[in-house]
Structure formats: structure tokens, C-alpha cells
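INFO  loader      accepted 1 record
INFO  loader      residues=348
INFO  predictor   begin
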Amino acid sequence: MSAEGSSTTGTANGRTTIAEIAAKIGVSVPSVSKVLNGRSDVAPATRLKIEKALQEHNYQRHSKQTGTSSSPLVELVFHELDSAWSIEIIRGVESAARRNGLAVVLSDLGGRHSPEQRWMDEVLARRPLGVILVLSTLTAEQRRQFDTRGIRYVVLDTDGEPPADVLAVGSNNWYGGLSATRHLLSLGHRRIAMISGPEDVLCSRARVDGYRAAHAEAGIPLLEDAIRWGDFSVAGGFENGTAILSRPDRPTAIFAGSDMQALGVLRAARELGIDVPRELSVVGYDDLPLAAWVGPSLTTVNQPLTDMAETAVRMVVDIARGTDPRPRSVELATQLVVRESTGPAPAG
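INFO  predictor   done
INFO  writer      dumping C-alpha cells
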């Protein structure tokens, strides 16, 4: 029988044991143990009944109670793993994990912003030290399942506003959008378009808000239909860039909400015979290593992706060691990096 199954009475500090939970809902102790450990060989109705009971009794697994500790693993979960942006996050997580004697398990949710239960079961079975979710989040029920098992989790560059009790790491996207647009305005540009990321992603909206704020600050009206919502990809940047640059009132500058989209804009400008930066200035976002190597080299907003990733690992490790991270939400600074893709607005 498992360590959990050996207990039949309440613990000295008043915590409910799984034996007591099993007795109260009329299931076996091994069934409760299987659900706690992410085993799939439990009937769905029984699983639901057990999860509900664990929640009602505020059950939380503790290493002293189970006699075992979490595995030396960090689960790194991307909503979609498809660009150089992801590589920078992976590099930061692996670096911090290695320093702390941890291995990294990588998952891709295939574009979903919340994982499926099958993935949850696999993680519960592995019992990692912690989980880092990138541009994704957990449902309330999934958070309860992790809390019940004592699995820590941090959201990194979250897709939406996380609940107040969830650990989160991000960067100042609003200021990034503000500084990028201020730079273009300072060069004399007055027709500035923007290609942001998906509208349902928090960082995309924050960058747009910074872009709007810079215009308001300067007393410059926005170009009509100036904002397009993209998908952070090169293809999306090319498609949106082509549409923007084919307008009769073609803008003299485009702020792309990611370096990958900026690459697509540069390609669109080249195919349309528009010189960058003489006829069009382009600003990206993220400052990926490739930004310095494209031609012309890309003016962009540095988002400290590796620092964000290392901070997320550090928060997981701290809470595993019994330290409650403060603050629970960390926002790192962004900074404009000026290179060759921006220049003075063309005359007229």
C-alpha cells in the first residue's frame, strides 16, 4: 500500500488524510491515491467524486505526509512552440534549472491556452517540483488539482490577467509600446501603423495601449484603421505588412509587435520596392538574436526573455523551499534598441 494509504486517522495538526476522505465518500484508499498520482485507471465518475472531495476538505499533499519528495523536474509548457522567441525562454529556463539541479520537461499545447486533462494526468504522475506556463494558464479546477498535490506553478508572459494568488512573471509591455512609438514620433513620423499580436493576449493589448498613449502624449491623431491584430509570426507580418503598405495613404512607419512579424514586414517592403529606412521605418519587439543580423538590422524593444524565464524558475525553487515569493507578480523592464531599420520620416 502507498504511504498515503497507510494512514487511517487525522494527522496531529488536523489535516484530513486520504483514508478519511475515502471513507467519507465510499471509495477505496487506492482509488484516492491513484487520482492524486495522475493514474488513468480510475472511472471518470469516481475521479470527479474524489476531486470534489479533495477540494471540499482542502486537502494538500505534503512531502512529510507522503514520505516522498517531488521529482527534480520543472515542466515548461508553451501554448505554441514555433519560433526563436520560444528558444530564448527555453534557454533561460534550462540555465536556471541546471544551476538548481533540475531537469526540464517541455510541452506544447498546440495553440490552446489551457492544457487538456490528459496532460494534467501526465504531470500529476511525474510530480514535478513546479510548472511554468508560457502564454497559457490553468483553469480554476486545474489549479485546485495542482494545489491538492502540492505542485507549484508560475505563469510567464500570461495570455490574460492571472488571479491574484497565482505567481506571474512578465515585462512592461505598455512601456515597450510607448517607447517604440515615441521613437518613431521623434523621427518625424506621423503616419504610424501597428501590427500587434492576437487581440485576446494580454501583452498584445498592452503594447497597443502604449502605442496609443504615445500618440496621445504627442497630440498626434492615430492613422485611420492603423492597428491590425496579427499572430506574432513572419507569415502574419508579411500578410499584414503587404496590406498596410498597399494603402493609398501608406504609412511611413510600422511598429510590429514582435521581431518575427517585423521580418515579415521587411519582406513585404522589399517585394513592393519600398526602401527601409529611407521610405519606411520598422520597429520590432523582443530583441531576438537574429534582429541584429537581418538587413537592415532591426530597431526593436528588448524584452528580457531569458531573465523572465530564470525568474520564473527561481520563484518555483523558492516556494518549494518554503519561501513565499514577494512580490507574487514580477514585471521586468523593457528597453528600446535603436539599429538601422528606422530613420527620419520621408519629406512630404
